[in-house]
Design goal:
This protein is an alpha/beta fold. 21% of the residues lie in helices and 24% in strands. It has 13 helices and 25 strands. It has helices at 21-25, 49-52, 58-71, 108-118, 165-181, 194-197, 213-228, 266-275, 299-305, 308-317, 328-341, 356-363, 434-438, and strands at residues 44-47, 79-82, 122-127, 153-154, 157-158, 185-188, 233-236, 251-253, 284-286, 345-347, 403-410, 413-421, 428-433, 445-450, 455-461, 463-468, 473-480, 486-490, 500-506, 511-516, 524-529, 534-542, 551-556, 559-564, 571-579. The strands form six sheets. An eight-stranded parallel sheet has the order 9-8-7-6-3-2-1-10. Helix 8 links the parallel strand 8 (251-253) and strand 9. The longest helix has 17 residues, at 165-181.
């Protein structure tokens, strides 16, 4: 709980410390520091919603789970979440545990969770704990009503009165059933204290009129958490209300629904830019149902590949629907934004349709890292934009920042990973000042590595110029220049930190050595900057049992690329240097 801050001030300055900042300024009344004992980093989740909507079938979950297990599980992927569409009853009402659609899910929920777990993944489920349709006739006193005597609906389903002990008993039974079926992740939608925030509720009909609605709400959340246990991940969607479930939720979805094309991703960017200051400090931020990294596809093309009812639903929800998918630069921007902010990594594509170049974008940005925000201010981004008129997405750049600056202090070194985004539809030419924009020293040289291009760019002092394609994001690893050979980037992960297990410069032997964890099926490359006065003389790589690994190196200017094939265990590598002789 101590902060040691050094602030360079050119002249006079006023420093003001704001007490109770989260509770009183940011409006998080139940703030406590996030306990990451069970979830040290934000998870990676695939959600069925925007690719299948309520038309999702058992075979869709199986198909995507198979692909995710084979392709992304080694990279940190965990959760397969079934969204709406598994239990609709009369007039679209929900029953959660009593009315599973046997046509779409012929083997039932327990078979489905067992199948997902058999793939080494963890099953999740969407539901609305505020609502339940199955007791209205037998227990009308379990529900909330308006002053005209009509039952309050949440997602077309009668809303429960959580001040009633019998309702709490039912919820305990409901979540014990879901727990025993094997679900380990929940997305709670419409999740708020209804008597507090639904203005039409007749408070005189509450079972317990004396209890504070927020106290009753938190009591309900405590019961659910106690039932499912601390190792179950719970995502909450507070529907625009304050974050009154802090301490019981692991993540919050604070935004509008996304849909599967570039304009449809704007809600995700808005959520990150408005709420990233909460991430890992209060909760993990869930920025949207999922990112779309599949290539562009017209509605007509999609109709030939997808279930027709899914396309009809998409047309209804996202009118005018101009197509699905994103360009490669747009997909790069999506994965970069998620990876460099450390929020929940949400996936929503029809995963088996992804081409290899799109799969590589995912692999090079997974897993998420335990990133903490430095910027504790919301940008006040507007979640909505007028997509129903003849306007371009470029007209709605809701104060999105053009620079993301991730400060890294890891075994791979101390450096900056900088994402430079061009939100416009034309190529942008930018000038980047290290001192003004990144807080680095203006009088010091820095070595810059372009991650997505996989190449060193050279040495710069304070200023560099960058060209960025439309809707693309350049990612630069900016290292303070040292007086000896130094690691400046790898092929494995956008941060440069994943894979590096150790790194050391031995000045007595003129050797740079380290240990790297490779991934199956992916060749591994690391880049080293070499000063003018030395040259590489020998390279070597071995496994734990001292088995030699075939390694090749390529010198280009002041950079050396060291490459070797993937290994099951970490690879120890060493590069030896000697003084460069003059001719």
């Amino acid at each position: 709980d101590l902060l040691d801050a050094t602030i360079p001030v050119p002249g006079n300055a006023l420093v003001r410390v704001t007490p109770d900042y989260f509770t009183k300024t940011l409006g998080v009344p139940y703030y406590i520091p996030y306990d990451d004992s069970y979830f040290s980093r934000a998870p990676i989740v695939w959600c069925s919603w925007t690719s299948y909507y309520s038309e999702v079938r058992e075979e869709d979950i199986v198909r995507n789970a198979d692909w995710l297990a084979e392709n992304l599980k080694p990279y940190g992927f965990e959760y397969v979440q079934l969204d709406d569409g598994y239990d609709r009853g009369e007039r679209g009402r929900h029953y959660w545990i009593e009315n599973w659609d046997e046509t779409k899910f012929p083997h039932g929920p327990q078979w489905l969770t067992s199948y997902v777990k058999s793939k080494g993944l963890r099953p999740g489920l969407w539901l609305v704990p505020n609502a339940y349709a199955g007791a209205l006739q037998q227990h009308p006193d379990w529900y909330l009503y308006d002053k005209q005597g009509k039952v309050i609906l949440d997602y077309r389903t009668p809303t429960l009165d959580s001040t009633n002990p019998q309702v709490l008993d039912f919820l305990k039974k409901e979540f014990a059933t879901l727990r025993d079926w094997g679900f380990e992740y929940y997305k709670f939608d419409g999740e708020h204290a209804a008597p507090k925030y639904a203005p039409t509720v007749d408070l005189s009909r509450l079972y317990d009129k004396s209890i504070d609605p927020l106290v009753a709400y938190r009591n309900r959340l405590k019961l659910i958490r106690d039932t499912v246990g601390p190792k179950t991940f719970i995502e909450g969607c507070p529907a625009g209300t304050p974050l009154n479930g802090i301490g019981y939720f692991n993540s919050y979805f604070n935004g509008e629904d996304v849909y599967n094309n570039w304009p449809g991703m704007y809600a995700l960017f808005s959520s990150i830019n408005a709420n990233a200051f909460l991430n890992h400090l209060v909760i993990y931020l869930m920025p949207g149902e999922g990112i779309e990294v599949g290539p562009p596809m017209s509605v007509e093309e999609a109709a030939k590949k997808r279930v027709p009812s899914v396309i009809r639903t998409a047309r209804t929800r996202e009118e005018p629907l101009t197509g699905f998918g994103t360009t490669l630069p747009e997909a790069r921007t999506l994965v970069t934004y998620v990876a460099l902010t450390g929020v929940v990594y949400p996936l929503a594509s029809v995963m088996p349709e992804l081409p290899e170049e799109r799969v590589q974008l995912l692999k090079k940005t997974m897993p998420t890292l335990p990133i903490l925000p430095v910027d504790l201010f919301s940008r006040g981004t507007d979640m909505r934009w007028d997509r129903f008129k003849d306007v371009r997405p470029d007209d709605y750049i809701h104060n999105y920042p053009e620079i993301l600056d991730l400060k890294v202090n890891a075994k791979s070194g101390v450096y900056d990973v900088v994402g430079l985004t061009n939100w416009r539809g034309e190529t942008a030419n930018r000038s980047l000042s290290f001192a003004k924009k990144l807080g680095l020293r203006a009088d010091s040289p820095y070595v810059v590595f372009d991650f997505w291009a996989q190449k060193p760019l050279g040495v710069f002092k304070d200023q560099m110029h960058v060209e960025i394609e439309p809707h693309d994001t350049r990612v630069l690893l900016i290292h303070p220049m040292l007086n000896h050979p130094q690691l400046i980037g790898t092929s494995r992960h956008i941060t440069g930190a994943v894979s590096i297990q150790s790194l050391m410069w031995d000045s007595s032997r003129n050797t740079l050595s380290g240990s790297s964890q490779t991934m199956p099926g992916d060749n591994y490359t690391l880049w080293v900057y070499v000063p003018d006065d030395v040259t590489i003389s020998a390279v070597r790589a071995t496994t734990k049992d001292n088995r030699e690994v075939s390694v090749r190196h390529e010198v280009t200017g002041n950079a050396v690329a060291l490459s070797f094939a993937d290994q099951k265990e970490p690879v120890s590598w060493e590069m030896k240097f000697e003084p460069r002789t003059s001719r």
